[in-house]
Amino acid sequence: MRRKAGLVLLALAVFFAALSPLLRWYAFPRLAKIPANQYQDVVLEAKGATLLDYGTMRARKVSEVTIVQTLKGDVDASERIERTAGRDVVVWDGLSYVQGPDGKMVSKLPERYIFDAHTQEPVHATGEMVDGDPVRREGIEFKWPFLTEKRDYEYFDAQTRTSAPIHYQGTRTFRGLKVYYFEQTVPWTRVPLPKIMPVQGVTPESVAKTGTTRWYTTVRRFWVEPVTGAPVYGEEIHQEELRGGTLLGGREKVTAFAGHVKMREDYIEHTVALVKSNRTLVLLLTSYLPWGFLALAALLLTLSLWLEARGRRPAGPAPEPSPDPEPVTA
């Protein structure tokens, strides 16, 4: 019985030892994915911002500017692209909607972002665009990869339609989470005018005829939880200008928007809670279960060897034979 029990324990030890790397290197890439039907939104605010009054073409201080960013998964488009891409793909339709303190639209920037569901690498397919313009992204946008590393990443900027390094600046603590801090500075760059302008009847084409151009710079900051690769907080020091042309009445430039854009507090709390929950699930596949199964395999192997040793232990000395009885004499 001891030998049979030892063989069973040995088989279980081999099973759990083999299961450990399978979970980490086989199951994790296939199970840890962004769902194709995900929907999320976040509200950001710029208090005391500067905003262009298109009626007077003068910049003025306002109480706040609100930016609503939404990301909505297109399941049908994901499935269609997956048939030719040969991997799990997510298609996000994004919209960055900026409004002034009066609730009127300042600008809106639609995007279609197509990427690998596990690695977050861009997948180039028909429909990839920013504000209706076809683009070919390089690097990440919105989310870092699972198990983010302490290094620089290429990050796509939707305004300039280009990618540039976003630099790892160190490890910090944010709301009880260990996070990696990344920062990117986009220098002053001429960027396209939005397809939909905030003034009725004004189009990018009509503005271009005046010779006026749009310029943009920003300092982009993210606090990223490294296990999930999800930003738990982000902010930008954002500036836009209109330069030259007859539209400005002889002025060299005018500020279109300038402000320190930050996530609203209620969305910070929601994001941190969501990331903490998902972090546990990722750690189960990458750390807790693989290492736990290795420890269990070692324990089972130890028990198996102990039972085998007990089964082979030599028996004690045989008892001495009792002496033959002597005959009884009268």
What are the defining features of this structure?
alpha+beta, 14 strands, single chain, 330 residues, 4 helices, 14-stranded antiparallel beta sheet
Characterize the structure shown.
The structure is a single chain. 28% of the residues lie in helices and 38% in strands. It is of the alpha+beta class and 330 residues long. Strands 1, 2, 3, 4, 5, 6, 7, 8, 9, 10, 11, 12, 13 and 14 form a 14-stranded antiparallel sheet that branches. A hairpin with a 4-residue loop joins strand 12 and strand 13. The longest helix has 47 residues. The radius of gyration is 32 Å and the shape is elongated.
Give the SSE map.
Elements: H1 2-31, E1 39-47, E2 50-53, E3 58-61, E4 64-73, H2 75-85, E5 89-99, E6 105-116, E7 129-130, E8 133-134, E9 153-157, E10 162-174, E11 177-191, H3 204-209, E12 213-225, E13 230-243, E14 253-263, H4 265-311
Antiparallel strand pairs: 1-4, 1-14, 2-3, 2-14, 4-5, 5-6, 6-7, 7-8, 9-10, 10-11, 11-12, 12-13, 13-14
Helix pairs in contact: 1-4
Structural class by SSE content: alpha+beta
How widely separated are the two ends? 55 Å
What is the helix fraction of residues, given as a range?
25-40%
What oligomeric state best describes the polypeptide chains here?
A: single chain
Order of helices and strands: HEEEEHEEEEEEEHEEEH
Number of beta-strand segments = 14
Coarse morphology:
elongated
